[in-house]
Design goal:
5-stranded mixed beta sheet; Immunoglobulin-like; alpha/beta; 25% helix; single chain; 675 residues; Rossmann fold; 5 domains
């Protein structure tokens, strides 16, 4: 308190004494024994009121002893049980946690981890993934701006997350205790298998496999890929103590449509401690992407040949050039390219409209624009008979599909009649047109969508020059042909809007997070937050059925199906109010990543200890670790002085006491007849 406050308190004390004396001695008519008590009560009441008016600040000091934290983190993943180290891990944790000397020096924090970092609970060693990166990140957050050591009881084998060696804070020492036998044993392993999730029917798809060997002598093995009882490919590989890795590559045929299951195997005559990691199942979804394109034209033009070559550069596309009078039915085609349409195209337009087919319209100096205005309403043409050359300007904001600027501004001009072109409805412009350096505010290449139907418009002839210019610039037709292929891909894809949209993978690995998401839209195609979605899941082999509700998230409904056994599953998602439904299937491959290890990853644990100035210990060296932690002067208990300042007016009990003093005084006076 300040000197000024102390003076006010002394003054208040004098005033309270003076008023009490004046009331019960100086002014009192009778000298009763009770007057002393009454004067004391009056003094306390008045002095309390004056203290509240002065409102002094009361300062209290509290000394707090802060021990440095010691994080003890135990690996709870399945690999610990496969390495037969569960008992060791539990005993090590108990020994550290219950050590009296450590508890006196440190505030011991207990954690466990597998795919997630959690406070210590009950160890079961059934975690399907190991994420040491999460341990490092969460410890940084929990003990922010604090120096602390970490004891990591683990085998060091990580299956998910970033490289943990560089995730831990270099200023905080990490002391790994290695679980599992570090002695090298003979082991062949499929370390990694790379394959695309999708492949095209009647094509070949690549498979890249990384093999690993642990041992001291030379060894040979057969690597093969099979489907069912058929061996699709086979190759002999050799290893030695020096050459302990190998990479094999295969091209497999995609001869069946749908999800195809394969098995990669590394077979040796030698007996191994762990043969589970010699096999790996994988799956590829084979897609039939064959697209039949009809180029319909009543004239001959170099554009037609150039367009045909560009489209057919993708082996999944087939182009037929026909005259509008010769075409009999459109069911044989997926996309129609209408080159410079005139009145002869009327039956084609009408048939395409009935069949809801997507079209690619190319105009030029032979086009009948009056006829075109009658047959479609996406673009409105007001053209003259004068010819004009139009340059292209790329629109970087175009977002209907991913497209790169392949140098459109440098391409030769396209020729089209001069006039105005107005866009209507839901039309997106990829290229706008320029006459020399003047922007015409008209499209040169545009796309439209109308009630699920898609159309593309290239407003000018001589695009064959674009393909030639691209070849001159890049010494290849590839960039231009990919550009055309993306247009055909866009037009070949149906975009009919569905009320129930469900997203899922065709296959998952055992232990992976299996999440199915869905969106339900009302008649205005707005996300319906009041929908009630359920999923019925059937195991194709056991026929066992499980039902779940999908929970609403941020503009999506989702369900988590983790923990399902390997096998094939069929499912149906239903919206109970509208009865809308979606059916699908997926496969869970029998692959447990935690069973892939025969030894702890001593090398990476050593790297981690070295980078953090820690040290690697083995289970029989735990006492040495404890002594090291106790002797380390880096970690000391901090004496913290907590100063608390509180104004007297916050003391609610003081007001209660003041009221009590005056009340007791009143009752005593009343009892003695002084009122």
């Amino acid at each position: 308190m300040t000197t000024k406050t102390i003076l006010f308190i002394i003054f208040s004390l004098i005033v309270a004494v003076g008023l009490s004396y004046f009331q019960y001695y100086y002014k009192a008519k009778s000298k009763l024994k009770v007057n002393l008590l009454l004067a004391f009560l009056r003094f306390l009441g008045i002095f309390g009121i004056l203290l509240l008016l002065i409102n002094p600040i009361i300062t209290t000091n509290n000394i707090e002893m802060l021990k440095p934290p010691l994080a003890v983190v135990v690996d709870n993943s399945g690999s610990i049980s496969y390495l037969k180290a569960e008992k060791t891990a539990s005993e090590l944790y108990s020994k550290l946690k219950d050590n009296k000397a450590l508890n006196e020096k440190f505030n011991i924090q207990s954690y466990q981890f597998d795919s997630e970092f959690l406070s210590f609970g009950k160890l079961n060693f059934k975690g399907t993934q190991t994420n040491l990166d999460a341990v490092a990140k969460d410890l940084k957050v929990i003990n922010k701006n604090t120096l602390f050591p970490t004891v990591l009881i683990s085998d060091g084998n990580q299956t998910s997350g970033n490289d943990y060696v560089y995730s831990f804070d270099a200023n905080n020492k990490v002391f790994p205790i290695v679980l599992g036998d570090t002695a090298k044993v003979f082991d062949l392993k499929i370390n990694q298998l790379n394959v695309n999730k999708y492949a095209f029917f009647k094509n070949k798809f690549p498979v890249e496999v990384f093999l690993q060997y642990s041992g001291t002598k030379n060894a040979t093995a057969d690597f093969q890929i099979s489907q069912g009882n058929s061996v699709l490919s086979k190759q002999k590989v050799s290893f030695s103590a020096i050459k302990n890795t190998a990479v094999v590559n295969f091209l497999l045929p995609a001869n069946k449509i749908g999800t195809q299951l394969y098995k990669a195997s590394l077979i040796s005559n030698e007996k191994e401690k762990n043969s589970y990691n010699n096999h790996k199942n994988f799956a590829v979804e084979i897609i039939d992407q064959k697209t039949n394109v009809a180029i319909i034209s009543s004239i001959n033009h170099p554009d037609i040949a150039a367009l045909k070559r560009a489209i057919e550069s993708n082996a999944q596309r087939k182009v037929t050039v026909v005259n509008p009078k010769q075409i009999s039915q459109l069911n044989d085609y997926n996309v129609l390219v209408l080159y410079q349409p005139v009145t002869e195209f009327k039956s084609v337009f009408e048939a395409a409209k009935l069949a809801r087919m997507n079209t690619f319209i190319i105009t030029g100096t032979h086009t009948d624009f009056g006829f075109l205005n009658q047959l479609q309403n996406n673009l409105e043409f007001k053209m003259t008979s004068q010819k004009e050359d139009y340059l292209a300007e790329f629109n970087s904001q175009f977002n209907l599909f991913a497209i790169d600027n392949i140098g459109f501004e440098d391409f030769p001009p396209l020729q089209n009649p001069y006039g105005k072109i107005k866009t209507n409805g839901n039309t997106s412009v990829l290229l706008s047109s320029k006459i020399r350096n003047i922007n015409t505010q008209s499209p040169l290449f545009a796309f439209s969508e109308n009630q699920g139907n898609r159309s593309a418009f290239l407003l000018g002839e001589n695009s064959w020059k674009w393909r030639l210019e691209s070849h001159i610039k890049n010494e290849s037709f590839e960039k231009y042909d990919i550009f055309v292929d993306k247009i055909i891909q866009f037009l070949a894809t149906s975009n009919a809007k569905k009320s129930l949209v469900v997203n899922h993978e065709s296959f998952y690995n055992s232990g992976d997070a299996i999440e199915i998401t869905a969106q339900y839209f009302n008649k205005n195609y707005e996300f319906d937050e009041k929908a009630h979605l359920t999923i019925s899941l059937v195991n194709s082999k056991t026929k066992q059925t499980k039902n779940y509700d999908l929970l609403k998230g941020n503009n999506v409904y989702k369900v988590n199906l983790d923990g399902l056994a390997a096998g094939s599953y069929q499912f149906t998602v239903k919206e109970l109010n509208s009865k809308s439904s979606y059916s699908g299937n997926f496969e869970i491959l029998d692959f447990d990543v935690e069973k892939q290890f025969v030894n702890p990853d001593l090398e990476r644990l050593n790297q981690l200890a070295s980078l953090t100035q820690g040290k690697v210990y083995f289970p029989d060296q735990t006492d040495a670790l404890i002594q090291s932690l106790l002797a380390d002067e880096t970690y000391k208990t901090i004496e913290k002085n907590n100063v608390r300042r509180s104004p007297l007016i916050d003391w609610k009990w003081l007001l209660v006491f003041i009221c009590s003093f005056f009340a007791i005084e009143w009752f005593i006076r009343k009892y003695n007849g002084l009122l």
